[in-house]
Amino acid sequence: MSKNHKPIIGITMGDAAGIGPEIIVKALEKKELTRQANLVVIGDAQTMKQALSIARSKLQVKAIKETDLERLPENNKNIYVLDLKNINLKKLKHGKVDPMPGKAAVEYIEKAVHLAMAGKIGGIVTAPIHKEAINKAGYHFAGHTEILAHLTGTKDYAMMLAHGPFRVVHVTTHSSLKEACARIKKKRVFAVIRLTYEFLKQLGIKNPRIGVAGLNPHSGEDGLFGDEEIKEIKPAIEAAQKEGWQVEGPVPPDTVFTKLKGKQYDAVVAMYHDQGHIPVKLVGFSMKPGSQEWEKMSGINMTLGLPIIRTSVDHGVAFGKAGKGRANPESMIEAIKLAIKLARQKEKAISS
């Protein structure tokens, strides 16, 4: 791979009624990104033109076809959009749950996965979708992770949230707390530890250190507050240690993330959705004092275990801000940077 080679990264537009188009425009104004990769939006060209106005951007939208991916010109003033022409702007209402943009959002993901699996793009960055909107459109998935796993035929996968080196991978995600507890099994916990280890190695960390959170208070206190640690989590950790991996746990949930922040680990494996999401958003998000405005929305979401590269923003559609020009693009910028880095590393590994 030559030093001047630029991978192609596809950015799915997300739900058009949310902030996805706006944060994409704001991110693509960053020349540091467009210098490193050819960035192509997979979405609706007219909606992206509307987003230019919302973001007060001087960039221009240029609709392209799939065949154009092979010869994208160097032009930092254009936003190239693989145009699926599936949004009716006259009917689109920002901040509203609507199956029309919900259906379109899934179609962007389907197209992006097709292109990535065919090797036509080097990775995918996804803007946020709305779970209710896609379900009303007839797509019965809990979110991006499940859609991507279905489209790629992936069985072992996991969601990772990260804010810089503060990385958390989840054993369970979108399920009730009762159901999540029932899903904590040795096989699944070991699979997530393995996916975490493999990703950290992919990042270039020679000897990854992984902390595994307990499920119960004080990690069960030797069975006093629950026996999941004894029966399921600890055996998974011991199996990982037999592989020669540096894995510690089960660590009490109230201290494991402090240790991660103190750089004792390169990542933590969390047992359920909020156990992992809360600490990442605590370090990556902040609000303006005394207001309801987000001052900072930083961090990324990534699906581990897929045969393709996929990164995403670490927030939702933010319907309250949609169409108002106030959306923060930090998370989108970070997601694009990581996708570019991983795509370059993958191409380097293939060519070496």
Keywords:
Isopropylmalate Dehydrogenase, 352 residues, 14 strands, 39% helix, single chain, 19% strand, alpha/beta, two-stranded antiparallel ribbon, 12-stranded mixed beta sheet
Give the number of domains: 2
Strand order of the largest sheet: 3-4-2-1-5-14-13-6-7-10-8-9
Radius of gyration over all CA atoms, rounded: 20 Å
- In DSSP terms (H or I, runs of 4 or more residues), the helix count works out at 12
Shape: globular
The succession of helices and strands, N to C, reads: EHHEHEEHEHHEEHHEHEHEHEEEEH
Query: Beta-strand level of the residues, as a percent range?
Result: 15-25%
Tell me what the CATH architecture of the largest domain is: 3-Layer(aba) Sandwich
- Quickly give the structural class: alpha/beta
CATH topology of the largest domain: Isopropylmalate Dehydrogenase
Measure the end-to-end span.
9 Å
- CATH homologous group name of the largest domain: Isopropylmalate Dehydrogenase
Q: Please outline the major beta sheet.
A: 12 strands, mixed
Q: Quote the average pLDDT.
A: 92
Residues in helix, %: 25-40%
In the predicted model, the low-confidence regions spanning at least 5 consecutive residues are none
How many β strands by DSSP?
14
The CATH class designation of the largest domain is Alpha Beta
Summarize the structure in words.
The protein is α/β, with parallel strands linked by helices. It has 12 helices and 14 strands. The strands form 2 sheets. The chain has a 12-stranded mixed beta sheet, sandwiched between helices. It is globular and about 60 Å long.
